[in-house]
Structures are given as structure tokens and as C-alpha cells.
Design goal:
The protein is built from 7 helices and 17 strands. With 354 residues, the protein is of the alpha+beta class. Strand 4 and strand 5 form a beta hairpin. The longest helix is centred in the first third of the chain and has 15 residues. It is globular.
Length: 354
């Protein structure tokens, strides 16, 4: 298998609607703990209108991918990290923690059953969506006494369309805040995402594809881009250096972020985690010190940022195209995910077909 881009076709999936055939479910209550595990066809859920999760947002989820390997097999990328983060999200929302072995077993079962739907097109993957939500029918303002874990999946194409590596334009979000200290910015809960839609609309109205979130206190420090982590490349004395905003409790500790920090170091780039202000970002681009910026995430993989808008101000990053470091890191990540390059120990979980 090679990694040349495949030309888009009218039937090629985008992101989020080409669902696979099966799902895994498991229930929890205080008496039985986790129980009633089922693997069956993807189907609608019967919900009481007073379901606590619908009213009080006790809902957490994850996102991870399975990729076709160079030898034709299928492997899931770093599911153990998602299992650990899923438990952390549950703790923060006062929900029962799903044991990591149960999380991984669900992944194994679903990918084994549905991997035949994944072609050898390297731009496609199976995106897995683990979900847990409060199911007790009760409108008292308190944690639920019943929960459902569910794992579903879809065949995913490019998050930003057919050209998955085209640079995007971003709008500095001055009006809204994604997360606050002591809040839920570092967990993957549904309540973080709905309030972001209005800022995303403002970005689109400004001709941008994404919004850049700033810290909630000083409103000057760069945190995330949409639902993705951000990386910056600057010119150092001995060559390019790669850095990303430090985890402050308001940023999601992305699995792709962590992977790229490791891969960047393996490629010989000095890496660091540090704060960067909007003013510094702008000035360093004008001075030619920051030469590349990219976002990363499970869905978007690695996405170059070409232009920044901040009210009436705007600036170009480098020449506005994907730079050599961004390109090299994306290739390194994709090659590992597809088994075309050696993966660090434990990064790939092979799933035999059934």
C-alpha cells in the first residue's frame, strides 16, 4: 500500500455520516456495576424525555481511529491513551469509570466486525466514537444513578474536505471563551462543544475555517484551534524548533498532540511546551521567526494554518502554504498509523478480522 492521495469521488465519505454496521453497549448502576454488555447492529436508542444526560450534560466521549496497514491488516492507533482519558473525563463529571480493559475489548469487537468496510485508500479510516451518558429518568439536579456506555463508528474521509492537507485560515476568538480554569477544558465532555458553535460561525462569516481560542483570564494566550491542539515552528540557531501551548488545565491533552511531540523529537527537532501570546505570534511571523503553524487532532490529523485574522488585522504564516516541518511531521504520523514506519512500543493495536 502506498500513501498517494486518492482523487475524491461522489460516493467517498466525508466525516461523520458513513456509519458502520455494529455498536457495543454496556450499562451501569450501583447494584450491578458494569453489566449487560452487548454487541449488535447499530440501532436507535429508546430514551425517556427526562433522561438526565439530556438535561444536565453528563455526557463524555472519545475519538480514535483504526487504519488499514501496509500488509492489509487493521490496527487501532493508541487506544490505551483514549481509554485513560475516558476514565479521567468520567471522574470529572462524577460518572462511573469504565475499566480500560472493557474499553479496549469494545474497540476490539467493533473493529473486528466492521473493518471489512475500510478500503485500502490511505486517506480513509474507521473513526471510533466511544460515548457514555447518564440515562436515569429523573430531573433532580444531581448525578445520575444509571449510565450507558456505547461504542459506534463510521468510515471517515477528510475532516476539512477532499484536500486534507490544504492550509486553513483562522480567526482569533475575541468574543467567546472555550474553557476556564477549574472547568472542563481538559476533559472530553459534550458540554465543551455546543457553546463553541457560535464562535465557529463567526469565523466562517469572516472567511475562516476555524476559530483560535484564547485563555479566559488575560485573553491573550493562545490555547487551541476549534477542537484541535496547535503547534508552532520557529527558526532556531541550529534549525527549526517545534513548540505547542503548555497544558494548563484548560486545554485538552490530545493523543495526536502527544504523538507529535514524540515524533518531532525523533526527527531531530527540539520540542517544548510553552505559552505564546497573540502579539508574539503576530510579531514573530512578521519577523520571520515563526515559519509554520499547524493544528492536530484525531479527525484532522495534521492541518497547516496559512493565514490569521484578528479583527481588522491579518497576517500570513510563512508563504501561506504547508511548510517542510509540518509536511514531515504529518508524513511521520501517517506512516506510523499505517504501519509503514516503526511505531513506538504500544502505539498500534492489531485487530484480526472476524
Amino acid at each position: 500500500m502506498t500513501l498517494e492521495l486518492t482523487a475524491p469521488t461522489p460516493t467517498r465519505p466525508g466525516h461523520g455520516d458513513a456509519f458502520t454496521d455494529h455498536m457495543v453497549t454496556m450499562a451501569w448502576n450501583p447494584l450491578d456495576g458494569w453489566h449487560d454488555r452487548r454487541v449488535g447492529p447499530l440501532a436507535a436508542l429508546p430514551l425517556h424525555p427526562a433522561t438526565i444526560g439530556l438535561h444536565y450534560a453528563q455526557v463524555i466521549f472519545e475519538g480514535l481511529k483504526a487504519h488499514r496497514q501496509a500488509d492489509g491488516s487493521v490496527a487501532v492507533f493508541r487506544p490505551d491513551r483514549n481509554a485513560t482519558r475516558f476514565r479521567a473525563s468520567a471522574r470529572r463529571l462524577e460518572m462511573p469509570e469504565l475499566p480500560e480493559e472493557a474499553f479496549l475489548s469494545a474497540v476490539d469487537d467493533l473493529v473486528a466486525l466492521d473493518q471489512h468496510l475500510l478500503s485500502d485508500d490511505p486517506e480513509l479510516s474507521i473513526y471510533l466514537r466511544p460515548l457514555m451518558f447518564a440515562t436515569e429518568p429523573n430531573l433532580m439536579l444531581r448525578p445520575s444513578g444509571e449510565y450507558l456506555f456505547l461504542l459506534m463508528a463510521f468510515v471517515a474521509g477528510g475532516f476539512f474536505g477532499a484536500d486534507a492537507f490544504a492550509p486553513v485560515s483562522v480567526l482569533i476568538g475575541r468574543t467567546h471563551t472555550r474553557a476556564v480554569p477549574g472547568g472542563t477544558g481538559d476533559v472530553k465532555c459534550a458540554a465543551n462543544y455546543g457553546p463553541s458553535f457560535v464562535a465557529q460561525r463567526l469565523a466562517q462569516e469572516a472567511g475562516c475555517q476555524q476559530v483560535v481560542w484564547l485563555d479566559a483570564i488575560e485573553r491573550r494566550w493562545v490555547e487551541e484551534m476549534g477542537g484541535m491542539n496547535m503547534f508552532f515552528v520557529r527558526a532556531g540557531e541550529s534549525g527549526p524548533e517545534v513548540f505547542t501551548p503548555a497544558l494548563t488545565g484548560t486545554l485538552l491533552p490530545g493523543v495526536t498532540r502527544d504523538s507529535l511531540l514524540t515524533l518531532a523529537a525523533q526527527l531531530g527537532y527540539p520540542v517544548s511546551e510553552e505559552r505564546i501570546s497573540v502579539d508574539q505570534w503576530r510579531q514573530d511571523c512578521v519577523d520571520g521567526r515563526i515559519t509554520e503553524v499547524f493544528a492536530c487532532g484525531t479527525a484532522a490529523v495534521v492541518t497547516p494554518v496559512g493565514r490569521v485574522h484578528d479583527g481588522d488585522d491579518h497576517w500570513l504564516i510563512g508563504d501561506g502554504t504547508a511548510g517542510p516541518v509540518t509536511t514531515a511531521l504529518r508524513k511521520a504520523l501517517v506512516d506510523v498509523q499505517h504501519g509503514l514506519a516503526p511505531a513506538p512500543r504500544g502505539w498500534l493495536r492489531p485487530i484480526p478480522a472476524r
